[in-house]
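Incident review: delayed structure delivery

Summary: a single-chain prediction request sat in the queue longer than the usual turnaround. Root cause was a stuck worker, restarted by the on-call engineer. No data loss occurred. The affected request and its eventual output are reproduced below so the record is complete for anyone auditing the incident later.

Affected input:
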Amino acid sequence: MFERMTSDREAVFATASDWLGEGERVAWATVVGTWSSSPRPLGSQMAIAESGRFAGSVSGGCVESAVLVAAGEVFAGGPARVLRYGVSTEQAWEVGLPCGGTIEVHLGEASRPLVERLVEARARRQSVARVIDLVSGNEEMLEPGRAGASWGGSRAGDAGPAELARAVEQALHREQSQLIELAGRRLFVHVVAAPLRLVVVGAVHLTQALAELAMLSGIDVTVVDPRTAFASAERFPGVTLSHEWPDAALEGLRLDRRSAVVVLSHDAKLDEPALQVALRNECFYIGALGSQRTQAARRARLGESGFGEDVLRRIHGPVGLDIGALTTPEIAISIMAELIRAWRQRPEPAGAAR
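Output delivered after worker restart:
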């Protein structure tokens, strides 16, 4: 049995798709430029329905009202355009910033096919880049390795296919949207990254703290434990739960390079089958609870199962950065810190454009 929590970013996409499905027209606002202390980072989004409903944010509350007014002009037949707003020091303080800043917001009507493709990409756990020509308003969604495809009704060759490919691939790898200029065209590469996924084996007390921290970080969390009394909705509200045996559960989840696996049950019957599945996949992080003695015994058993030392080195054990953590929340923080470091400092994939 599974229960699932929807992330804020995914909720914006899903909401826009729902509105379009109801026959509403939807405007799409995206932060494409920031200077000084901007309330929201590049790529932040806001969907506005013609009825006045909206989801998401482009400034944390400073300019949303103005964007809503501009969206009304789009619905009245106005073209897609870039809006520039200055955020005063007083307004910035109201949203928790030390000083003011300036943002540029691209606003245009959302096409149903594009929104549906974004929703489908997230369902497939596929990161994509939405490329917007800020002068013409043309836009297209590009997947990794396809930056040379036609988009916006013209050939990407008009903007330099090799340069565009490099910009898209680098933006996707770094997961950072960016504003670029190619062949006299001002383009915004909006990265829509698939969520990272953390699979935790063992619904123990530490898992509760770790799951909460991961979800606060925007990571999808699945807790695997066949013991239904442990893996309950009451103990893990909003978390995806699986009561299958760990090896079967992890095989079914189709682990990929955006997946992390942490085993915390301290029971070899649960932890080691899960580790075997994780080691056979390209997970960016694999962590295991236990002392150095426990780790050595576990590695020996895994070695007897055919895993070489070079593969076993992928296991972070004892799990977590050595920060002197003693309490359960501190240990959870140390695990999250090590997991984030593993993701942010991962090597570029082979063949990635530089």
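Verification: Residues 1-8, 148-157 have pLDDT under 50 and may be disordered.
Action items: add queue-age alerting; document worker restart procedure.
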